[in-house]
Amino acid sequence: MSRRPYFRTVSRYGWWFAHPRYLRYMARELSSAFVGAYGGLVMFALWRLWQGEAEWNALVGFLQSPPSIGFHLVALAFALYHTITWFNVTPKAMPVQIGDRQFPGGIIVGTHYFVWAVVSLALFILAGAGT
Amino acid sequence: MTPRRIEFEILRYDPDKMQKPEFQTYLVPCEEDWVVLDALNYIKDELDRTLSYRWSCHMAVCGSCSMMINGEPTLSCKSFVRDLPNQVCIEPLNNFPIERDLVVVLDDFLGKLNSVKPYLIPREKKSLEEGVYLQSPAQLKKFKQFTLCINCTLCYAACPQYAHDENFVGPAALALAHRYNLDSRDVGRTARQDVVASNLGIWECSFVGACSEVCPHGVDPAGAIQQAKIASTGDYFMDLILPGRKS
Asked: Is ipTM strictly over 0.90?
């Protein structure tokens, strides 16, 4: 009897189709691209606003076009997926223990949603006050 | 009750006779309360004595009987045949070299486990006469979950990061390092950080979370690694604020 271990290779590409959990992970990773792209768009919009009224109005016109609305819908879906999947894993990364009792994960996740809602509301109020 | 006949397709490899692994099929009359390990034992006893696989406790404690069952890293003693279809594909654990049939080479994992110093490093060693190191229930609770690891290596078989970079220290070893780092009796964190906080340690993990999904004891290695990342990030900023501080 001899030793001759057999090494199986893993495909560098396409491995994420091997199991739904890998596909979910890749979707979460992909969502970062849309979140980043939307962040870039906001920065671009600020730059156009700084340039003047005509440039800003031209951008607003573009934003109302069907391709732009399509991009926003897709980006929103990915941003929601990104946010929800990350919020859901926060109890793993940041468990809270008081004495010998551990905080239920639902409270940690819920706190994130609560802070998200408060910050969003504050931004809406701020934006409304500016118009 | 009449036994249910299940077709087991098993990946076989004999280094003396085969160039590469090949599937072999066995038809097994399974009782309703059998687990896959019982079916393997039936094959070994009644159909083919050459089949090789590891097992010991038959109760999900020893972590020996890990294998891929229909593509999922699973303890074969915990996988009931009543939950499986009439055709079952059994392979050795993914991401490990195959020694023979369902037996894989675990040397790499054992080396990594050793590299994180998975043992108590106390501030001062006590003699037996001085008694045990005391700990409160609250202190124990901080890390108890991570003590439940049975080294079954299912997490390594599920981890795509380990699949693509065998140098990654990996989930179980990093979770065990975190277990000792959280232990109030231990002061070995600094000694472990060279391995744990390296690019091939916690920072190689991209939080797929597959390790925690397949863990048979709910250890949650992915959680341990993310907690260790936060602690290491804290170290980085503390070193910036207080250079030369004693960690």
From this structure: no
pLDDT tens, position by position, B109-161: 999 999 999 999 999 988 999 998 999 999 999 999 999 999 999 999 999 99
Do A8 and B222 make contact, defined as CB atoms within 8 angstroms?
no
What structural domains and CATH numbers belong to chain B? Answer: 4-104 (3.10.20.30), 107-241 (1.10.1060.10)
Give the right CATH number for A16-81 from 3.40.50.1820, 1.20.1440.230, 2.40.10.10, 1.20.1300.10. 1.20.1300.10
Of A18, A25, A93, the CB nearest to B223: A93
Residue whose structure tokens are 């001085």:
B130
Which structure tokens are listed for B116? Answer: 């994180």
Q: What are the pLDDT digits (tens) for B193-218? A: 999 999 999 999 999 999 999 999 99
Site from A2, A6, A15 to mutate, B interface, most B CB atoms within 10 angstroms: A6
CB-based contact, B130 to chain A, within 8 Å: no
pTM, 2 dp: 0.91
For residues B157 and B92, give the distance between their C-alpha atoms in angstroms, rounded to a whole number: 9
